[in-house]
Write a structure and sequence with these properties.
Strand order of the largest sheet: 1-2
CATH superfamily of the largest domain: MFS general substrate transporter like domains
Number of domains: 2
Radius of gyration: 27 Å
CATH class of the largest domain: Mainly Alpha
Largest sheet: 2 strands, antiparallel
Strand content: under 5%
Number of helices: 22
Order of helices and strands: HEEHHHHHHHHHHHHHHHHHHHHH
Helix content: over 70%
Structural class: mainly alpha
Number of strands: 2
CATH topology of the largest domain: Growth Hormone, Chain: A
CATH architecture of the largest domain: Up-down Bundle
Distance between the termini: 81 Å
Shape: globular
């Protein structure tokens, strides 16, 4: 019988006297594997437990804020979509035309765009809790007033003015700025999960609103949304602290002597002098042009014009919304791990290429519409967590509210331009091919703008630092 090989004998001799088991004895099996980190020996935990709960353990307060923002965005997104659901009832009961109701929605979007920078600046000054509480109160008031309207001017005041201001306060940019102040690590993933609430509301609350509307009427539906809005007030008050922990960390990152102007005009001048912010501003404006402006406005009309039934078209839009949720979470997770400007460029380029599928739908197969909604859904809202993460490090957390507010305003402007241009091109050519070709072109431009940004995960602030104080003065 052949004896042990030379490698086995060498291992035995090297380990002899050091506590290693001898070759002819079986090594004792441990009940649980142990992991060694430095000089400390830690008990290894199951893989699934580490993956599922490691995020929450590292920052439990921050993830409670994510939960609050997820619920708030779900409610507000449902409120914004509810007027489309109630449109036939408003036409029947009050005799309003569809063009007038659409104008009411447009006025609300204008109010959202105009208030976003102001609300962002207030968030940087007073913190997120006061801003969100005020936004929920204003939104609840808008919903309550909307449930009682009987004249055209009343819906303009209730929904367009009060609702537009409320929607601008409880918005994606405010949610992103709030979460960025609470997270040092996994910021992108947290922002993506919270903003997924803007899509989850369509899936969870909108069917309930539809049920109430068909059973009791549209007035009771708006009262239901007002009650849900008020129910979030104690949750916001209890779980969002007056001063976010992240804000204190932000001051440490920027430096104790970092100069940040107090006036809004000075902050805006400082903001528009930053090349990274200008690149993000251009790409985010195109984001609104290609997403909210074109798809949210013209997708259903295009699908119906291709011969796809209304119910199937609406279902496809719902599938797109579902993939929005996963796309935001995935993009946020990736933004914490890979080069963010490259990731943002890939998102814009892939979004642009997805429009080519729309061009193929009437020519090849209408079933390609399902391929489009999956692909576009993944790359639709996924720009939000990546853009927020870049703003946090390249612009600074101390003015992130104002920064995201400006981005939101230009995003809304791009959306308005996209919706208008889509209608003009369709009226000119009686088809949407020119609309989708324009979307491909500008999306590629957004991808190129993103590539001009340099990756730098070291947070930086604006302004010139004050000269160091003498040691005697510090003493």
């Amino acid at each position: 019988m052949e004896g042990p090989g030379p490698r086995k004998i060498a291992r035995y001799c090297a380990g002899f006297g050091k506590g290693y088991p001898r070759p002819h004895r079986a090594a004792p099996r441990q009940s649980r594997p142990r992991a060694v980190r430095g000089s400390k020996t830690l008990q290894a935990k199951p893989f699934s437990e580490n993956r599922l709960f490691s995020y929450v353990r590292t920052n439990p307060q921050g993830w409670l804020v994510v939960l609050v923002m997820f619920l708030a965005l779900s409610m507000v997104s449902t409120t914004r979509a509810s007027i489309g659901l109630a449109m036939p009832s408003l036409e029947r009961d009050l005799g309003w035309s569809r063009s007038f109701i659409s104008t009411v929605v447009a006025y609300a979007l204008i109010c959202m765009a105009l208030t976003s920078p102001l609300i962002g600046n207030l968030l940087d000054t007073f913190g997120p809790r006061r801003i969100l509480l005020g936004g929920l109160v204003v939104t609840a008031a808008a919903l309550g007033l909307s449930s009682q309207v009987s004249e055209a001017w009343q819906i303009v005041i209730a929904y367009s003015v009060f609702g537009g201001i409320g929607f601008g306060i409880v918005s994606k940019n405010v949610a992103s700025a709030t979460i960025a102040r609470h997270f040092d690590h996994d910021r992108g993933f947290a922002v993506g999960v919270a903003n997924a609430g803007s899509t989850a509301g369509h899936i969870a609350l909108l069917p309930i609103m539809a049920l109430i509307l068909t059973t009791f009427g549209w007035r009771w539906g708006y009262l239901f949304l007002a009650v849900v809005c008020l129910a979030l007030l104690p949750l916001v008050f209890a779980l969002i602290r007056p001063e976010a922990p992240g804000a204190q960390h932000a001051k440490g990152r920027l430096g104790a002597d970092e100069v940040v102007p107090a006036g809004l005009a000075a902050r805006l001048r400082m903001l528009f002098s930053n090349r990274t912010f200008l690149a993000l501003l251009g790409s985010y404006t195109i984001c609104g042009f290609t997403a909210t402006g074109m798809i949210d406005t013209h997708f259903l009309a295009y699908a119906i014009s291709c011969g796809i039934p209304v119910v199937v078209s609406a279902t496809a839009y719902g599938v797109l919304a579902a993939f929005n949720m996963g796309g935001m979470a995935l993009a946020g997770w990736l933004s914490d791990r890979i080069n963010r400007p490259h990731l943002l460029a890939v998102i814009y380029i892939m979004r642009g290429l997805s429009y080519i599928i729309l061009l193929m739908v009437p020519v090849y197969d209408v079933n390609l519409i399902w391929v489009f909604v999956v692909m576009f859904g993944i790359f639709d809202y996924s720009t939000i967590p990546v853009t927020t993460s870049l703003v946090a490090t390249h612009v600074g957390l101390r003015i992130i509210g104002l920064s995201l507010g400006m981005l939101a305003m230009f995003h809304a402007g791009g959306a308005a331009l996209g919706a208008f241009m889509g209608g003009v091109l369709f009226d000119m050519f009686q088809k949407y091919d020119g609309v989708w070709i324009a979307a491909v072109a500008v999306a590629l431009i957004a991808g190129m703008l993103s590539l001009t940004i340099r990756e730098n995960r070291t947070p930086r602030g604006f302004g010139k630092s004050a000269p160091p104080r003498p040691a005697a003065a510090e003493a």
